[in-house]
């Protein structure tokens, strides 16, 4: 820490008085973390402080570089030194200690590893399998795909989760003796029904005088949405399309000609 602070003072980024305050704040945070039972908030507060400090360092460095450029002095303007890396390294170390101490805390993992697809998959699987919260699991998958749109594993697991849920709905309807050929246009109505929020009204309607299979219709709709998004994100990945089709074949949704044709659309 001393070498880093000496470098900051030597470069004129922080004054001696400011550096003394930095030392004081860091000692306060380190004391909190060394307590027998440090709180998660202690780690987050330390991380926030170091993040703001490093942002200020970068801002002042850019300002000094612009002044040197105006004066026509470009010497050592872009040269990196210890203080350019120490702040980020410190933040990463604090995160690493925090996630080790609070292993099951997904908030920390998301803050530390927001672009790691496995974290989103794990969180969604937990909501789906353990908490039985399909809406939360779906939201996690969709947020994960916004952050990691090029992750094949995320697209595959998202499709697998949705089709697993449809299978559960199909089994539930069969067990309750409900009509298997009802068509439900609003997928959210199925979620409400599964959570016990259905008002008892008839969800099935006829389309063009025909009753279509619920599982196949909703499976087709979900496939089209997920598959289209996957192809747009990874247009050259034929391996991804193959993986999606293999999942559909395992569920029986890929047997129809329309389903197979849709799966190969580029």
TrEMBL record:
It holds the Pfam family U3_assoc_6. The keyword Nucleotide-binding does not apply. It comes from the Eukaryota. SUPFAM superfamilies: TPR-like (SSF48452). Keywords: Nucleus, Repeat, rRNA processing. One of its GO terms (biological process) is maturation of SSU-rRNA from tricistronic rRNA transcript (SSU-rRNA, 5.8S rRNA, LSU-rRNA). This is U3 small nucleolar RNA-associated protein 6 N-terminal domain-containing protein. GO terms for cellular component: Pwp2p-containing subcomplex of 90S preribosome; small-subunit processome. Belongs to the UTP6 family. Coiled coil: none annotated. It comes from Salix viminalis (Common osier). One of its GO terms (molecular function) is snoRNA binding. Residues 1-75 form the U3 small nucleolar RNA-associated protein 6 N-terminal domain. Gene3D superfamilies: Tetratricopeptide repeat domain (1.25.40.10). It is found in: Nucleus, Nucleolus.
